[in-house]
What we know:
Belongs to the BI1 family. The chain has one domain (2-243). By secondary structure, the protein is mostly helical. It is built from 9 helices and no strands. The protein has helices spanning 2-50, 60-67, 70-88, 94-112, 115-118, 121-144, 152-173, 176-207, 214-243.
Amino acid sequence: MAEQQTIRSGAGVRSAEIDQGLRTHMNKVYGTMSVGMVITAFAAWAISGLAVTPSGELSQLGVAIYTTPLKWLIMFAPLIMVFAFGALINRISAAGAQLFFYTFAALMGLSLSSIFLVFTGFSIVQTFLITAVAFAGLSLWGYTTKKDISGWGSFLIMGVIGLIVASIVNIFLGSPAIMFAISALGVLIFAGLTAYDTQKIKTDYIQHAQSMDQEWLSKSAIMGALNLYLDFINLFMFLLSFMGNRE
């Protein structure tokens, strides 16, 4: 009887340790993601300011960024970095992974800087706040739901690949109808990914709670932050295409 009580007591202590560790882990994920968002917002705002002269014309930097072949490099560089990050995460240190993520966030800010030239500042702020509320609700649901949504993963990833292909094709077609369909599907897909990725971060932590080390923990938090960061940015951009008022 005493042994059973000891076992229960030990299991309870271990469960409490996992719960505390999970909260710390999720705080690290959301904290890293938030820093990345601040870097992106500042970079986008700063570059957009340098890209326009006081008279409202594009500066030399603006011309180089938005009207020369350099724009294609700026557009696709973040996508290339995402794939590179996935390939390098197991080979670099946690500090190197964090630096890579922040560099990626700055480059993403450069890529997104044109929204300040296309949309009004009010609509950008309004859409950002709506995205933040929606993201928080979706992420909270993914964290607290008892439903296993791991099966969504392959379907959602296929949807993302389809969005990328359709977006590239529409660069040359310039069809408003296709753009509208892409935006609508994009909102739905990244809403689903927000909940899915949150649950996956939680599940991965719990599954590895017995054997993980500090280095793994730090890398896992950064990778989780990157996934949620991408969910937020894409959800924001697709909502902005619907709600944004153009200059």
